[in-house]
Amino acid sequence: MGQRIVGSHIPARRYLDRVRVRSALGRVARVAIPGVRHVHGQVARYAALWDDANTLAVTGVGPLWVVLGDSTAQGIGAPSHDQGYVGQLRPRLDAERGDEGRWRILNWSRSGAKTQDVIDVQLPRLEALEPRPALVTCAIGANDLRPTPLEVLIERLRHIMGRLPAGAVFATLPQGLRPEKAVVANEVIRSEAPGHGLLVADVWAHTGPPWRGKVASDGFHPGLRGYADWAAAFAEALGLPPAGPVGSQP
Description:
By secondary structure, this protein is α/β, with parallel strands linked by helices. Helix content is 49%, strand content 8%. The chain has helices spanning 12-32, 34-40, 42-59, 71-74, 85-97, 115-128, 150-163, 179-192, 203-206, 224-237; strands at 64-69, 104-107, 135-139, 169-171, 199-201.
C-alpha cells in the first residue's frame, strides 16, 4: 500500500468528537433536505451500475480506459451515472476511433475518496492490471480540501503523480471549494505533472461562476452542465474537439 501521511496533531478525543459531529450533521441533512437526500441516494446505485459496467468492460474489446478518483468520476449529481464527466467524455473518445469500436471503461473511483484512498487502493489495482490500459484519468483531492492540511495534500498529490503512468491525465482541483488551498495545490499540479509525463486537465480553469444550472440539488456536486465543464477540461488535455452545449440541469 502507499505511504500514509499523518499531518494532524489534534488529540484523538477531540478528533473523534469532530468526526461524530460532522457525521451526525450529515445524517440530519440527508434526511431533512430533499436535494441532499436525492443526491446521497445516488451513491450506492451509481457504484453498483459502474461495478456492473466494469465486469462487462473486462471481457469486452476495444481500448481500455481506467478511471480513478472520487464522486465526480462516479457522476454523483448528474441525472444518471453515465452523464458525469466520464460519460460525457466517452462519446468524444469514441468519435476519434470512428468505426474501430468503443472504449471500454474500468471505473475504480469511489464516492468520498480522498488522495490517501487513491494511494492505498486505486493505484495498486491499476499497477496490477494487465495488459496496461490505453488511457488513465484521475481527478482527486476535492474531499481533502477541508480536512487535510495543505502540506499533506501536496505531498500526496506528488505521490500520486509519481505513480501514474506516462500519458495519464491528472486533473486540477475545481473552483468553489476552499480556493486558498486549491490554488496552491493546482500550481503544484500544473508545474510538476508534465515532468512525470502526465497531461493536465485544468478543471479549475473550466469551472466557476456563474453557478446557475451547473450545480446538483445538494448544492455541492456538479450537475449535468457542471460536468460538461469537467469533460471539456479532459477533452482539451487530450486534444479532442469541443462538444456542443448540453441540456440544462433538471
